[in-house]
Specification:
This protein is mainly α. It is 69% helix and 0% strand. The chain has one domain (3-281).
């Protein structure tokens, strides 16, 4: 990775880590659900005119928008408003990688390796230590809300993997259009129109600044830059930088909000970050049941072009204009399997390879890879 790309990866992790502190400040100006709705409105409204039309089916945009935007961010903001510290939130939310692995096993059949199982156990031990620390000084209810937000994030990661967006920034901007109305409706129902109007009337430069940061810097820049890095480097190279998010989150909360960091919290951080590292970076085990795409491709190809048909049906002499169709990449197969007057067989193989690769985009990030910011 080039030094400039390395610096960009660290910058994105810093942006996402500091974001928790900015959210904490913003919650002093807005009710949590209204703040979350405005975050997505401001992120989507200008950007949607520049990113082009959606590049995945609307069902995936709506599904991820509801699970990630409404459920995950709604629970996170409500939990932080209920007393969950910003620094601890940035740490606990990383348990999403464990939820992602569990849901991927249940839905996609991705079997975790022993190393990943060990990582999950270590991360869960870290959550237990963090819960003990928070229970001694804070609200376990708020802690549980952030855990629920992490579970929703894990579910959205699996949905994003199923969607396989070719352009992460385009996908994230269109996803941001979905949560606005549901979150506004929930805010009016639970927080009340009078509280929402009072927050908007009292809006000052600090409140507007927090809104601009969480919308444009965290969402548009953060996810866009992360997706740009994933398109140029292997996910295994980029993903470890997300482990810096709780480091920046806890540090910024201590510096700007005066949040204390106890010995138990440092212990929880070490366990959780170590467990997440094992869970996220360990190689995946081969699936016991082949995925739907590999099983579908072989079954579709023989039905369209039977393997024995080319040699049985093709006449001995082919027209001259078909001769250039022979691919040069497989000379050995033609020398042994077919005489020179059978150029029609190799083109049958080539579409199968194309169909296989087209449904598996390379390095398309899921949000567990696309960042750990809020």
């Amino acid at each position: 990775m080039r030094p400039t790309h390395l610096a960009l990866a660290v910058l994105v992790a810093a942006v996402w880590g500091v974001n928790f502190t900015v959210v904490e400040i913003g919650l002093g100006h807005f009710p949590p659900l209204l703040f979350s709705a405005l975050r997505f409105l401001v992120a989507a409204l200008p950007a949607v005119f520049f990113v082009g039309r959606p590049k995945v089916a609307w069902k995936w945009i709506v599904a991820v928008g509801l699970v990630l935007g409404v459920a995950k961010f709604g629970l996170l903001f409500v939990g932080m408003d209920a007393g969950m510290p910003a620094g601890l939130s940035s740490l606990v939310l990383q348990i999403q990688s464990v939820f992602t692995a569990v849901i991927a096993f249940a839905v996609l059949g991705e079997r975790p390796t022993r190393v990943r199982l060990l990582g999950m156990a270590v991360a869960l031990a870290g959550i237990g230590v963090a819960a003990a620390d928070e229970g001694a000084s804070g609200s376990l209810g708020a802690f549980a809300l952030v855990i629920a937000a992490a579970a929703c994030w894990g579910a959205s990661n699996v949905l994003t993997r199923k969607a396989s967006p070719p352009d992460p920034l385009n996908f994230m901007v269109w996803v941001s259009t979905v949560p606005v109305l549901p979150l506004l409706a929930l805010s009016l129902l639970t927080e009340g129109p009078s509280r929402d109007l009072a927050a908007l009337r009292a809006l000052d430069w600090q409140g507007a600044g927090t809104l601009g940061y969480v919308a444009w810097v965290t969402t548009v820049f953060g996810f866009g830059a992360w997706g740009w890095l994933l398109h140029r480097h292997p996910a295994s190279t980029v993903a470890p930088f997300s482990l810096l998010v709780p480091v920046f989150g806890m540090t910024s909360a201590a510096l700007f909000l005066g949040e204390p960091v106890s010995g138990l919290r440092w212990c929880a951080a070490a366990l959780l970050v170590g467990g997440v590292a094992l869970t996220s970076l360990a190689p995946a085990a081969p699936s016991a049941v082949p995925s739907a795409v590999p099983s579908a491709v072989p079954s579709a190809v023989p039905s369209a072009v039977p393997p024995a048909a080319p040699s049985a049906v093709q006449p001995a002499a082919q027209p001259a204009d078909q001769a250039p169709a022979q691919p040069v990449a497989q000379p050995a197969d033609h020398a042994h399997a077919q005489p020179a007057d059978q150029p029609a067989v190799p083109p049958v193989v080539q579409p199968e390879e194309t169909a296989w690769t087209s449904v598996h985009p390379v390095d398309v990030p899921a949000p567990e890879r696309t960042g750990a910011g809020s």
